[in-house]
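DM from R.C. (forwarded with permission)

"hey, sorry to bug you on a friday — could you get me a structure for this? deadline for the figure draft is monday and I only need the backbone to look sensible"
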Amino acid sequence: QVRVVESGGGLVQPGGSLKLSCAASRFAFGYYAMAWFRQAPGKEREAVSCISSTSGSTYYADSVKGRFSISLDNAKNTAYLEMNSLKPEDTAVYYCAAGQTTTPQTRCQTTPFSYWGQGTQVTVSS
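My reply, with the result:
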């Protein structure tokens, strides 16, 4: 079982920045990806970004492209989501997820994300 723990949420003014962290416990085998999802009140959960540990490929939702940046520290099994130019519509609970595969994935989106964190609240408001 992989344990996933997020941190770094909080309250920020529009236009501000926040950096989320996600630490995963040791993976049983080498190929994995990590992702960020978010869910706003009354809305469905949506994928925000993901990154592959092998190819380094990344994915961003159109709504965050150019503002958010995902990175991965393989040695620490820790992913980061740097969020800039935050907007009120970015307000949501942000969840980190991790997934493992037996073969390397070219695209992080094809990884089954089986392990989830508890979520961290991000509120963008003046």
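R.C.: lifesaver. Residues 60 and 73 are 18 Å apart (CA to CA).
me: no worries. The radius of gyration is 14 Å.
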